[in-house]
Design a protein that fits this description.
The chain is mainly β. Helices cover 14% and strands 42% of the residues. A hairpin with a 7-residue loop joins strand 8 and strand 9. The longest helix has 36 residues, at 2-37. It is globular, with a radius of gyration of 24 Å. The relative contact order is 0.12.
């Protein structure tokens, strides 16, 4: 009987202890949440990447990929709070003896699908029988971990449209279909327009090369495309177009004889397809972001009249230039949206660094980016 009483008393005390421990843990969590609510952060983040892309692993961890950081390939950083980032090392190694690619490893994006991680990226190909200056193509690699190592699905580019291409972005629609968006490089792509006529009349440039964004359905195994690519975005032809001025600044400022439409990112909200894109020279101060909308993933897309939605603030007393090549990070089941992009500051000079700024879609469908910011703003994970 005494043994039974001791056992019962032990059980009661254990229960009380566990109850107190649970209450203490709950109190700790509530306190941490309360503290998080009042946290702020300041741009730029301490990551020197161009073309940043953040993957939400779905398990409380985020991984950032971008152009730069390692030689002949890509690296990743990890974070639990989107503000403090840890370098995890190289995740993809290109320019090997057996690889199809050679150099200029750009614009990586990683997607988690069915416990696998797929890396889409751009690089110059080795096969160059005519000695072209640009041979960009898109590759796809896979890994069991967001930290790699990533291995190419096939030792060749995803496909060859007949011209150099960069900046792959993948979108999955509600019906399960995948779409690939990419940019045709400016290289050897002179285009006639009123801007080109103006440049000749001013004796600035003889021709203006352009990059255009295309979309095409992508096979679910990511090894090929389905059908022919469709042109979805290009620089304006007319000088009185509402988007002509900001998209032509690299030409009108006599920076370079090229107009870009690149770094696209597509998502869907309230039945409307949004495609964000960057224009102007990626290495210059005028790099900026606009967007267009459509009712079908392959368009036709209509550019917004409130473009650009993200641009330099140095003309207004700020210190940021070269804002562009963004992606959109969705938090809280899409309730919160953040533009992740690179830019330059007075302090960072020519080095591209990562910015994270809140964005939203207004009730009338207008897209707004609340940046670039360099002063404290609410933490993205604050409640």
């Amino acid at each position: 009987m005494e043994k039974l009483r001791t056992t019962a008393l032990y059980a009661i005390l254990s229960g009380v202890f566990l109850l107190c421990a649970c209450k203490n843990r709950e109190k700790q969590i509530q306190q941490e949440r309360s503290e998080t609510t009042h946290l702020t952060y300041t741009n730029p983040l301490d990551v020197e990447f161009g073309d940043p892309y953040i993957l939400n692993d779905g398990q409380g961890m985020y991984y950032m990929y971008g152009t730069g950081g390692v030689k002949d390939g890509f690296a990743t950083y990890s974070s639990q709070n989107l503000v403090d980032w840890k370098f995890e090392g190289q995740v993809y190694q290109g320019n090997t003896k057996d690889s199809w690619n050679l150099k200029n490893f750009w614009a990586p994006e990683v997607y988690k699908i069915d416990s696998k991680y797929y890396l889409f990226y751009s690089a110059d190909r080795k096969n160059n029988p005519t000695n072209e200056l640009e041979t960009f193509a898109i590759g796809v690699a896979v890994s069991d971990s967001p930290k790699g190592p990533f291995t190419d699905i096939k030792n060749e580019p995803l496909f060859d449209p007949g011209y150099p291409i960069i900046d792959a972005n993948v979108f999955q629609d509600d019906d399960g279909k995948y779409y690939l968006y990419y940019s045709r490089a400016c290289y050897k792509h002179p285009v006639e327009s009123e801007i080109a006529d103006w440049a000749r009349d001013e004796e600035i440039y003889d021709e203006i090369e352009e990059s255009w964004v295309y979309g095409v359905e992508l096979a679910s195994n990511f090894t090929e495309v389905v059908g022919d690519p469709v042109l979805v975005l290009r620089p304006p032809l007319k000088m009185d177009d509402k988007n002509a001025e900001w998209e032509s600044r690299s030409v009108t400022s006599k920076e370079i004889n090229r107009r870009w439409t690149e770094g696209s990112f597509t998502f869907k909200r309230n039945g409307t397809y949004y495609i964000m894109y960057s224009a102007n020279h990626y290495a210059g101060p005028n790099y900026a972001v606009g967007y267009a909308t459509a009712k079908h993933p392959l368009g036709p897309f209509t550019k917004a009249i409130n473009n650009p939605v993200l641009e330099r603030n140095s003309n207004e007393g700020g210190e940021v230039t070269g804002t562009g090549h963004n992606m959109v990070l969705f938090l809280e089941n899409g309730r919160k949206m953040y533009a992740v992009y690179h830019g330059r500051t007075t302090e960072t000079g020519n080095n591209r660094v990562v910015f994270l700024d809140e964005m939203e879609i207004l009730e009338n469908g207008t897209l707004v980016v609340k940046g670039p910011t360099t002063t404290p703003v609410p933490h993205p994970l604050a409640e």
